[in-house]
């Protein structure tokens, strides 16, 4: 089968294969593709596709992929690569075609003279006399990639060469840049991550996607761009009614504009016809009919760090009938949030539907065996984004494989979130010392208790 070189943006390295496999399953070619070279902290992946149209379908959706190339060869140096190409006349432009060559270095920045030197070496040794084109309108584009080891920039580790086929969907990252939006908030999801979530959820035309913690709707914007009908729910009515404080940098406004709400962003991006609406709702007490099903649920639940996690209490301050005036807010701890999320997805997701959500974890105390589970779901992917030296978050993708029997419930181990807020502000060195002091501390709750005692 034809081999292709995929050139990625150097970010979210763990997410590349998950996004690739998710889109391959959605477009129906997962079984016919193979991975020959996985990236090792570099942006190059070598794989096979049985049909070039499969590659183009994937590229049209991937926001992590910069560009894709028909793989020619690779070697230890430019001369080595060119010598291998001399025996293949079909790897050269036709006489009437214009051509150009793109030179990229990983871990090394080339100056313009260095790029020209490599272009001259390539064209001279292959005796290419075609007209050279300086813009992206060339008939024939070659990609030359040099991969260097960190700290060893004298000689490349390996050199790849191939013919350009297509670009990825990186333009969407710039188009949906949070700084360009009319309506944003403190926790509006980054554009790249939003589109990765939409790809993991396999959002597509005629699907319905829910974000039960939608906030300003950043994730739903990405889902709508890919054709899904989207709907959200949010606990904080101030966000939904333009009553929250402005969060844009350098703004002098003390209040939001009357139209500074979610629908304005969808209107600006031309996807208002895919926006079904948003409701003010407490996720702990779902407002949806149990006969209504979603194709996917995507969300970033509140961790209680930058935004508080709350729900309405069912405790009554008076003897009157429970309503919004009598109910009060109470803390919604992380364990209950994720138990409710998985149980909610079990009721409202269709078979084969996907639940895609972020899970906060403390790096030093993370244990994969503590991940949330449900008998009706299987884990598709688990990818980590490190936020700082202490904390990371993981994007989990679960697929509903069957309906529930005998009222099966989610399992979330409390140790996963024990005193997460306290650990968030605890230095790693302190945790390391406490985890190894006399072998008496067994989990994150013990670390937090010892920290509190020390602070007192």
Q: Give me the side-by-side strand order of the main sheet.
A: 2-3-1-4-7-6-5
**Estimated share of beta-strand residues:** 25-35%
Would you report the number of β strands?
16
Runs with pLDDT <50, length 5+? 313-325, 438-442, 447-456
**How many helices does DSSP assign?**
13
Q: CATH homologous superfamily of the largest domain, by name?
A: Vaccinia Virus protein VP39
Straight-line N-to-C gap = 66 Å
The CATH class of the largest domain is identified as Alpha Beta
* CATH overall fold name of the largest domain: Rossmann fold
| Order of secondary-structure elements | EHEEHEHEHEEHHEHEHHEEEEHEEEHHH
Q: Which CATH architecture of the largest domain?
A: 3-Layer(aba) Sandwich
- Mind summarizing the main beta sheet? 7 strands, mixed
Q: Say what oligomer this is.
A: single chain
Radius of gyration, Cα only, in angstroms?
Answer: 26 Å
Helix content: 25-40%
- Helix/strand-derived category reads alpha/beta
Domain tRNA (guanine(10)-N(2))-methyltransferase TRMT11 N-terminal: 3-170
Subunit structure: Part of the heterodimeric TRMT11-TRM112 methyltransferase complex; this complex forms an active tRNA methyltransferase, where TRMT112 acts as an activator of the catalytic subunit TRMT11.
InterPro entries: DNA_methylase_N6_adenine_CS (IPR002052), RlmKL-like_Mtase (IPR000241), SAM-dependent_MTases_sf (IPR029063), TRMT11 (IPR016691), TRMT11_N (IPR059073)
Domain Ribosomal RNA large subunit methyltransferase K/L-like methyltransferase: 180-312
